[in-house]
Amino acid sequence: MEIITTVPELQERIMNWEKAGKTIGFVPTMGYLHEGHLSLVRGARRGNDIAAVSIFVNPKQFGPAEDYNVYPRDFNRDAALLEKEGVDLIFYPSVNDMYPAGYKTYVKVEDLENKLCGSSRPGHFRGVCTVVLKLFNLIRPDEAYFGWKDAQQVIILKKMVEDLNLPIKIRPMPLIREKDGLALSSRNIYLNQQERKAALVLYRSLELVESLIKDGERRAAKIRQQMIDLISAEPLTRIDYVEIVDFQTLDPLEAIEGDALVALAVYLGRTRLIDNLRFISGVIEK
Ligand code: AMP
Hints:
Blueprint: E1 2-4, H1 7-19, E2 24-29, H2 35-47, E3 50-55, H3 75-84, E4 89-91, H4 95-98, H5 117-120, H6 124-139, E5 143-147, H7 151-163, E6 169-173, H8 193-198, H9 200-214, H10 220-232, E7 237-246, E8 260-268, E9 271-280, E10 283-285
Parallel strand pairs: 1-4, 2-3, 2-5, 3-4, 5-6
Antiparallel strand pairs: 7-8, 8-9, 9-10
The chain binds adenosine monophosphate.
Adenosine monophosphate binds at residues 29-30, 36-37, 39-40, 146-147, 149-150, 173, 175-176, 183-186.
């Protein structure tokens, strides 16, 4: 496994693999890896000659009052985990390598970027799209793997790839959870014991949605209100949003008919957690 930290070295490495006709599967991450990340890595490893992973805590996707400075980092542990997975390349650039002084270019997927997480995290998806497009241009993968944990991110990046005619297949992968249902996240480490316990209400609210849908309920307002009541009954939570939206447009739905995304963001103390359930072609995925 090679660890590359600079852009010119990376470009040379990628060119050599391209010349040798190798296919490249790519997994962008911010590090502090868990089983959710590793499931994407395994997908990339299975489907391609070369598996490449980037580890970069991207300052441009954090708001000024957000957790960029304290975001957990442990490169040595991450590298050991990736080595065990048979990864060929880790790209681990510095902020200055990605955004040298005078950096000015940004990518926006209009409209979609302002909904759901975008409305409480202005500029977040502009930062995500910018760094992902830069990484795509540097690594030139055949396939890129992303988790349904960040459903809005998947939907926005698919749109970016389509709109900009990028020759890359986006491969969304299942959301990986703890045994008790909590979605794995690098940010779970911020939770104290009480918050960790209270955080289960996110998953319970999705189980509630599943049972309501199975019982034939389709009215979004009814489902949403029951989720809000359940989550609010847990005193350690503060809801950022609970939304039931169209899977393509991310606009609120009156009734769940076609494909829908049930998405939520909830604060446990100072930690903001997200989770979601997808209703696609009549099948519930969570
Ligand atoms: P991050 O390091 O948080 O930027 O995440 C990197 C990639 O891992 C993104 O595509 C995430 O959607 C994905 N990911 C994070 N947590 C999970 C999870 N619990 N299950 C599946 N994928 C995940």
